Amino acid sequence: MTEKDTYKTITKPSAEVLFKEKNSKFFGYVFPVKTEEDVKIHLENLKKQHHSARHWCYAYQLGILENQFQFRVNDDGEPNNSAGMPIYGQIQSFEVTNVLIVVVRYFGGVKLGVGGLITAYKTTAQMALEHSKIVTKTINQEIELKFEYKDMNKVMRVIKEKNLKIVRQILELTCTIIISVRLKNLNSVLEAFEPIFGVELKILND
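User: That's the sequence. What structure does it adopt?
Assistant: Structure tokens below.
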């Protein structure tokens, strides 16, 4: 089975969306995030922007490989699993990652019940994602090549033939080139460099 080497995400925040139900207002937002610190910053900004709101419920997912996904949901005072999980369900439904969805609620005086809340949070999250530009990106692996300057032509020939992206390079008597390789092409690229005697290959971890 070939390992999946693409993922879906967003590159810029969504437009604000608004869902109304029985006088309650639900504002929805999607943000691109890569760390928990990113999440914290967006939440702090929204709490300042909507300082008189009652709830700031959210869900996020980080990571680009399925077996390394990290996610968190927060009901922020709403009944258990009535807000964070319905929001996270939309992240799963749209198959996006490295995203934070926040739904800000202004209570309108009429209780919606757990079923009503689930529908409201799910709908707002869905609307926010529908107003986001979702892009597909490839999962790439960086490889470090170390070799003597005399082998430069052989190394560059493989880079050109395989159409590889050079991330950075130090060209001296001993050269270092870091290339970015799409995950599914990793083995064939490693094999292409193997016949060049004296080239050291190292797979870099993030």
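The longest helix spans residues 113-130.
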